[in-house]
Amino acid sequence: MQPAYAEGLCPRMVYWISASGTILRAESENADLVRKEDGIFLQPFTTDHIIGRNLFEFIEGIEIHHLYQALMNKVLRTGVSITFPYRCDGPHVRREMIMSLSFENEMVRYESTLLREIPRERRIPAETNSATTLVAICSFCQRYRFPLTSTIWKDLDYLLLEADLPDKFDFSHGLCRACYQRFADDLK
Ligand SMILES: [Zn+2]
């Protein structure tokens, strides 16, 4: 994979988390390249307003909480690093990221790096936080399942082509089968 930016410009965020999930320290490089309005899922991220808060405030979905807790426990217990690809899309862009969890001074060091950004043809609408229709979305690969009775996970770009999608909907954050399997292997 080729980074979209010259190496020195690649937005990279590093944060250090205590065993209980408190964010103790954070550093970001060129994080301003990721514009605030580009985030459809994350709260605005600046390093100064997250220190002292709990990592799990920023992670949606009980399944995903449990997964991060399990990954952190494994890193803290074994000292082994865990690296995985994930997506952090915005309404206008697909963002391919890589996350690495490693053990450092009794803390878990999270490092997230943007590998590349690919513009979207159609804007993905933001969730409303008040809709009754839910679209299941995988927090890691950002493929979705709709309607909830469907078992097929599709790329987010196809969401707007769904004939039955109402104007207002919310995402239900979870884990698709493929990502579940990958993490199950990491956690062995
Ligand atoms: Zn997935």
Would you tell me the structural class of the helices and strands?
alpha+beta
Can you count the helices?
Answer: 2
Mean pLDDT: 82
The CATH topology, please? Beta-Lactamase
Give a short account of the largest sheet: 5 strands, antiparallel
Attached small molecules: zinc ion
Share in helix: 10-25%
Describe this structure in words.
- This protein has two helices and nine strands; from the N terminus they run ββαβββββββα.
- It starts with 11 loop residues before the first strand and ends with a helix.
- Helix content is 14%, strand content 31%.
- The chain has a single domain (10-186), classed as Beta-Lactamase.
- The strands form two sheets. A five-stranded antiparallel β-sheet has the order 2-1-5-4-3.
- With 188 residues, it is α+β, with helices and mostly antiparallel strands.
- Mean pLDDT is 82; it is low at 1-9 and 36-44.
- The site of zinc ion has 7 residues, from helix 2.
Which SSEs are present, and which pair or pack?
Blueprint: E1 12-17, E2 23-29, H1 62-78, E3 82-87, E4 93-104, E5 107-119, E6 134-138, E7 143-145, E8 154-155, E9 170-174, H2 177-186
Parallel strand pairs: 6-9
Antiparallel strand pairs: 1-2, 1-5, 3-4, 4-5, 6-7, 7-8
Short summary of the structure?
This protein has 188 residues and is of the alpha+beta class. It is 14% helix and 31% strand.
